[in-house]
Hints:
By secondary structure, the chain is α+β, with helices and mostly antiparallel strands. The protein has 4 domains: about 10-215, no CATH class; about 225-345; about 355-550, no CATH class; about 590-725, Immunoglobulin-like. The protein is built from 26 helices and 9 strands. The protein has helices at about 10, 20-35, 55-65, 70-75, 85-95, 100-110, 120-135, 140-155, 160-170, 175-190, 205-210, 215-245, 250-275, 280-305, 310-325, 330-345, 350-355, 360-370, 380-400, 405-435, 445-455, 465-510, 515-540, 540-555, 590-595, 725; strands spanning about 605-610, 615-625, 630-635, 640-645, 650-665, 670-685, 690-695, 705-710, 720. Strands 2, 3, 5, 6, 7 and 9 form a 6-stranded antiparallel β-sheet that branches. A 3-stranded mixed β-sheet has the order 4-1-8, with no helix packed on it. The longest helix is centred in the last third of the chain and has 45 residues, at about 465-510. The protein is rod-shaped. The two termini are about 70 Å apart.
Amino acid sequence: MNIITQNPFRVLGLTGNATERELQKQLAKIKAFERVGKTVSLDYDFNIIGQISRGAEDIQEASNKIEQAHKKLIYSLFWFVKNTQFDEIAFNNLKENDTEKAIEIWNKTLREEITAKNYSSYLNLSTLYIALSTIAEQIDLQKLQAGISLKGNLIHSESLKDFSKLVTGNGISNDPNEISKKFVDEVIELLKPYLNKRSGISANDLISFFSSYPSSIQKYIAAKFTEVPISTIENKIEKTTQKRKNNPRDAEEYGEELYKKTKSDITLLKKLMGSSNVQYQMLANKLANEILQCSIDFFNTLRDEGGEYDPGEAALKVAKYAKAIGTTGQTKSRIKENTEVMQEWVDDKPNRQRQEAIAEDLAFVTNKLQRFQNLSDSIDNSRNLIVSCKPKLNNVKNELGGYDDLYLQISSAVVSNALGMIIEVVNRGQSQLQHDRTKLITLPTTISSAVSVIEKMECFDMVSEVRNRFDTNKRTIKGIKSQLDSITNASRSYSATSSTNKASASNSNSNSSSGNSGAILFVIIVVVAIIIALLSNDNSKSYSDYRTSSNNHSAKPSYSFDKKNTEPVYVAPAISKYKGNKLKNGSSPYNAFFGAGVYNKKHHNWMTFKNGYQTDAIVCLVNYYSGKTIRNEYIQAGTTFKMTNLPNGTYYMKVFSGKDWNPTKVLANGKIKGGFDTNESFYQSKNSSDLLQLNDNGYQYSTGEITLYKVSSGNMQTQSMSETSFFN
Length: 728
């Protein structure tokens, strides 16, 4: 019901302050017209403010509504009263449909203060403004605001008592705030057809019209508009959560749908309640968290499946929806961390595509290196590794570029392994020559073959450390070949001279043949002795350097194949001069790279780590969403260490284990100083079941114990990772 057009006083053709006698007289008049079947036209119909329904039921209903004094007061607030001569004059103009003249008359009586002489003008003018603002399809906001403001002036003035006495016949005590609340309720009901329409009024506009009212009334009207959207948003969050859990592969759609269907409601609540309102912040954070979780579940599910579809851009889009809501505290940080992770994934897409393009080539080289470890030492096997891997490495280089770290590492690994086998063959050849001089016949051939393969390796790209070792060994082996060639040439020259002498002696005296044969044998023995002496003396320093270089060179190459989880291939390292050296428990050797350890004194979360390895370990605690390493702690083999004051968050571990701490060792292409010389390995625990969820809510905090083992007896599963990934 429109409380103005169908106001009980209008239906009965009376003013709001009509007496009981006037009411009964009017009822009798209306019924008399009904008996003869005629429609009655009454003095206060005021057709300018809209049509009226005046049937028998309407008459009875109107009469009932104004029987009680307090109801009569409310209905009169939305109608007119006749208290002064100005009211009478204005009414006459309204009967003639001259609203402008009526407005002019009442406006002339308005003053800074409401008095007994003009309070009826405030009431009547405000009712007229509100009535006129709603008679067209498009609401007149200016008239509506004026009407609401004038009505508030009356309600919250001393003249409210005068108005109450005029209408009810007595000066009953009325609470202005309660009257205002009832007025608000009726205004909202009146304006329902216009709310949130393109040509109507927004809830925020309506609330602003009550800005002159006490703050309690503004909060009251705001609550009227917040109850429904809050309930709607919470209901949609609950439904989305269930759908996401049932089908995470489509969570991206659910998150986007949740954002779009709640956008208008959360925007309205922000305007009504204010962004600093605690209730609003809690709801906004809850909504954003669910949208973000849709993004995360979708991203993780499709990424882990490893299919052709890349979830990065779609997941990032939904995560940005969560960010757009405007959140606070941990929710804001969580959105930022996850958005950055997804952005990195999206930015890295070209690199992943390149790696996918070379996946078969990497798999071929990896397989070759693995099988190579079980082959017997021979120059031919080294040659086969070099020749077969070269075209595959060229493909990798063409895709990634000659300066790409992965390409350089895998290319260096091929060179390292092939060179290592050549070293073993040459070492064995010289060792055998020391005990069996007949090996002199085959050694030059072996060395020549070794040089041939080494020359093929020269065109391979290598990291600087491998290149230096390769060049050193290349010079040494080529030096051996050069000396062997010189000795062989000298031997051939001497043998040719000996043969000439023998022939000459035979021509001059055939009986001397036995003596000449003895001389030839002597010459051959001398040549062999010279060769052995040269190899064991002249080359001793160079060859010794070469052997040392081979041992250094045999240290594990640093490369990884994340796609295949391939174990690195390496030859046993040399004995470290830092053998037995280690750091103290709790040392943080990589603060310069990862940053100083992050502590939160307000959070009591702690984790105890038991190092069950036979090697020392550097345990890094990494934020799962941001990838930031918040702690790097050295834990000696067989000992326990407790990390305390851990900030709230979701974490995984990565571990660098080994022996013989070398403070001068350079890792990660010069980015890192300090590392293990022996048995170095890199691991991580990134499975979802192994994530560490830490939360201190002021009442409870998280604790736990992690036992580090490379075998199944540990309480956390690990997987190997590369040095490059560890220091990423």
